[in-house]
């Protein structure tokens, strides 16, 4: 399963299960720009007036899925959980094979 949801919107049963979670973090600047262009093209949402307006909304957490910082904080609180792996998008791009190895090790696959 893949999701963009913040941790507090997940079913509590996830956290008492043996499910493994791979959490991918991306640089907030890149998240902001990517989201701006995504929401500019989609017809279901009110389009941002400008990138500047979107930046203001993003910094206040007034965007889909809420505050990027609160999203990160929520999920990173799970770092102590054995079934939780944090990966960084930028690291995956720089070292794809190393990232694949981390994922395989985490999942117990060789």
TrEMBL record:
Q: PANTHER family under this entry?
A: SULFOTRANSFERASE SULT
* Sulfotransferase domain span: 1-110
Instruction: Tell me the compartments it is located in.
Output: Cytoplasm
- Its chief place of residence is cytoplasm
Query: Pfam families, from UniProt?
Result: Sulfotransfer_1 (PF00685)
> Does the keyword section mention Transferase?
yes
Q: What is its EC number?
A: 2.8.2.-
Which SUPFAM superfamilies does the UniProt record give?
Answer: P-loop containing nucleoside triphosphate hydrolases
Q: Which residues form a coiled coil?
A: none
Which top EC class is given?
transferase
Q: Which family does it belong to?
A: Belongs to the sulfotransferase 1 family.
Report the Gene3D superfamilies cross-referenced here.
P-loop containing nucleotide triphosphate hydrolases (3.40.50.300)
Keyword Magnesium on entry: no
| Keywords, ordered alphabetically | Cytoplasm, Transferase
**Can you cite an annotated GO cellular component?**
cytoplasm
Molecular-function GO terms, alphabetical: sulfotransferase activity
Entry protein name: Sulfotransferase
């Amino acid at each position: 399963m893949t999701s963009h949801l913040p941790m507090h919107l997940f079913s509590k049963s996830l956290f008492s299960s043996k499910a493994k979670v791979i959490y991918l973090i991306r640089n907030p600047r890149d998240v902001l720009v990517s989201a701006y262009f995504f929401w500019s093209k989609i017809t279901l949402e009110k389009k941002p007036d400008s990138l500047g307006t979107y930046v203001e909304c993003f910094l206040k957490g007034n965007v889909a899925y809420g505050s990027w910082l609160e999203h990160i904080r929520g999920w990173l609180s799970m770092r102590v959980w054995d079934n939780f792996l944090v990966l960084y998008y930028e690291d995956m791009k720089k070292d794809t094979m190393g990232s694949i190895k981390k994922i395989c090790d985490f999942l117990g696959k060789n």
